[in-house]
Design brief:
five-stranded mixed barrel; 35% helix; OB fold (Dihydrolipoamide Acetyltransferase, E2P); 2 domains
């Protein structure tokens, strides 16, 4: 049983060492390797533990790749970068007051752009509004669980090695 668990963990680690998520050929090879390892383990009792550990390694690799694809599926279209988007939702966790503003996790319930695949959780930083007047307005005190409607400007996105933006990383609410 330990060998199988270690094989699964090795498969997850193996995926994390990859520069890219697997393409169709790797998925097919992984599936074929899994089937061959399971059949070999059933047919050859002496090699059962090693074959099942190899199958668990393939399964761990596939599981981690599937979870990464699901997580990266949420994406923001490029045309919405650097534009105001109205977000409604809840402050999740404890906001962190920093020198450059208040950083917090925001659970988005609705977005003004009407995007279906908008990320459910985004990390925001509420910076002082220096454009409003000569005296910058400090952000209000935020508390976990508060409901807010904010206008956010997407500043950057997480880019994969192939250059595709998959989800927003940091957004700034604008007063």
């Amino acid at each position: 049983m330990r060998a199988i668990l270690l094989g699964f963990a090795l498969g997850v680690w193996w995926l994390q060492q990859q520069a890219r998520l697997p393409d169709r050929a790797v998925w097919m090879a992984c599936g074929a390797g899994f089937v061959i390892a399971v059949i070999s383990g059933v047919i050859r009792p002496r090699m059962r533990i090693g074959c099942f550990a190899a199958a668990a390694c393939m399964l761990g690799f596939s599981y981690a790749a599937m979870r990464a694809e699901v997580r990266l599926h949420e994406q923001l279209p490029v045309e919405y970068e650097q534009r105001d988007i109205e977000l409604s939702g809840l402050v999740r966790g404890l906001p962190e007051a920093r020198a450059d503003g208040t950083r917090f996790v925001f659970e988005v319930e609705a977005n003004g752009a009407g995007l279906r695949d908008f990320p459910r959780l985004v990390r925001l930083i509420w910076m002082p509004n220096e454009r409003a007047s000569a005296h910058p307005q400090l952000p209000p005190k935020l508390r976990a669980g508060e409901r807010w409607t904010l206008r956010a400007i997407v500043k950057t996105g997480v880019r994969r090695s192939d250059g595709v933006i998959r989800r927003p990383a940091i957004e700034e609410p604008v007063c």
